Amino acid sequence: MRIELLGVAGAGTMGAGIAQLGCLGGFETRLWDPAGAALAAGAERLRADLDRGVQRGRWSAEDAERAAARLVSTASLDALDGCDLVIEAAPEDLELKRALYERLEAVCGPDAVLATNTSSLPVGRIAAGAKHPERICGMHFFNPPALMRLVEVVATETTAQPALAAATAVAERMGRTAVRCADSPGFIVNRCNRPFTLESLRILERGIAGHDQIDRVIREQGGYRMGPFELMDLIGIDVNLEVARSFYRQRPEPRWKPHPIQERMVAEGHLGRKTGRGFYRYRGGRREQAEETAELPEPVRRVVLERVVAQLVNEACFAAEEGVAEPDDIDAAMRLGLNHPRGPFGWLRALGAERVEEILDALAAESDERYRAAPLLRRLTGSAQSS
Ligand SMILES: NC(=O)c1ccc[n+]([C@@H]2O[C@H](COP(=O)([O-])OP(=O)(O)OC[C@H]3O[C@@H](n4cnc5c(N)ncnc54)[C@H](O)[C@@H]3O)[C@@H](O)[C@H]2O)c1
């Protein structure tokens, strides 16, 4: 299927960024938003970002000009008539999105592909009321779309192959890496990264290391750009807790249970950078205390990274076995979507399946179900019969 005309529904943070990628990718792009002010602001941001890209040498002035000329911003949904693919980036509200798809189906031709950028709603539930659910899929971009090179292309049980192929081709023409994944909680990245913060909170709770020590080990030894506590402070402990709750509501896996430390901090109003206090304290947007530079104690260095990584590997094994995505796609998604230094299957190869299994079994023996090794891991080590 040939895609020439692209529609974007919603001109907020994500919609304007996605429309920019469409214009730069050579698509005639129609950006629609029901709120006039939001539409004007989104189109303005898009143009300003194109100019900034020229100043930073990311593309030429001619390319920016050509891209800007491909944009039509419109306050009328009817203008999406004729679009070959519409990417919806409206607010994260199931009923709002379902009502919008009803309107999109009435306006767009019967062959148009409709893709949602939802982060947390099941795509199948958005598509459930549609006349043609086979043409609905997910195209999950990351924020900011202009810088993040990943798109998760999400297939529901009813999405037809041509719709997935079209979404993949569009993402690739936008210069993104598209990874296929099944419609399941958090898709690939948000799900497979659950242990990054949850396991770190358990290490903190057990008194094995302080939050600052854990951050240092994860950065210095793991090669991650940011430690889990710095990350939670940045995105907001309340936001992180809400995501954790949403996963646990969708599926009460013991591994996904929100941590009491998060609950307590939110109840106390310590939400991270935005309130000046989270795991760290901030003044004027900067961390108050300088980071310790003394060498970390050997038990801390040894245990922390391994525990977090073992759980990242384990979650990815569960996800791969459930058919969420192929191992190589999971690795690509974690590297591109989160800037992780290597994906979970990369860690699995580096540590060896036996070592990961050993770490999990030791933890499971002293605690609980949260460390149950994935059946895939058991098969990799040849100990499947003991699971
Ligand atoms: N912000 C992120 O980090 C991020 C990352 C990935 C995915 N997402 C997802 O992208 C979607 C949009 O998020 P956002 O951060 O851009 O939100 P946003 O609030 O910045 O933008 C939403 C836009 O939708 C418009 N809108 C309101 N009602 C609408 C309707 N009925 N139909 C169409 N548009 C409508 C609003 O005017 C607004 O401009 C959500 O589903 C969100 O989960 C967000």
Describe the overall structure.
- By secondary structure, the protein is an alpha/beta fold.
- It folds into 2 domains: 5-183, NAD(P)-binding Rossmann-like Domain (Rossmann fold), CATH 3.40.50.720; 189-259 and 291-387, Orthogonal Bundle (N-(1-d-carboxylethyl)-l-norvaline Dehydrogenase, domain 2).
- The protein is built from 17 helices and 10 strands.
- The strands form 2 sheets. It has an 8-stranded mixed sheet with strand order 3-2-1-4-5-6-7-8, with helices on both faces. A two-stranded antiparallel ribbon has the order 9-10.
- Strand 1 (5-9), helix 1 and strand 2 form a beta-alpha-beta unit.
- Helix 13 (298-321) crosses helix 16 (353-366).
- The chain is globular.
- The model has no long low-confidence stretch (mean pLDDT 95).
- The structure holds nicotinamide-adenine-dinucleotide (NAD).
- Residues 9-15, 33-35, 38, 89-92, 96, 100, 117-119, 141, 143 line the site of nicotinamide-adenine-dinucleotide.
- The portion of residues forming beta strands comes to 5-15%
What is the CATH class name of the largest domain? Alpha Beta
Order of helices and strands: EHEHHEEHEHEEHEHHHHHHEEHHHHH
Q: Output the radius of gyration.
A: 22 Å
**How many structurally independent domains?**
2
Number of strand segments: 10
Structural class by SSE content: alpha/beta
What is the helical fraction, as a range of percent? Answer: 40-55%
Instruction: Spell out the CATH superfamily of the largest domain.
Output: NAD(P)-binding Rossmann-like Domain
Low-pLDDT sequence parts = none
Average pLDDT reading: 95
Gross geometry: globular
Within the CATH hierarchy, at the fold level, what is the topology of the largest domain?
Rossmann fold
Ligands bound here?
Answer: nicotinamide-adenine-dinucleotide
CATH architecture label of the largest domain: 3-Layer(aba) Sandwich
Largest sheet: 8 strands, mixed
Total helix count? 17
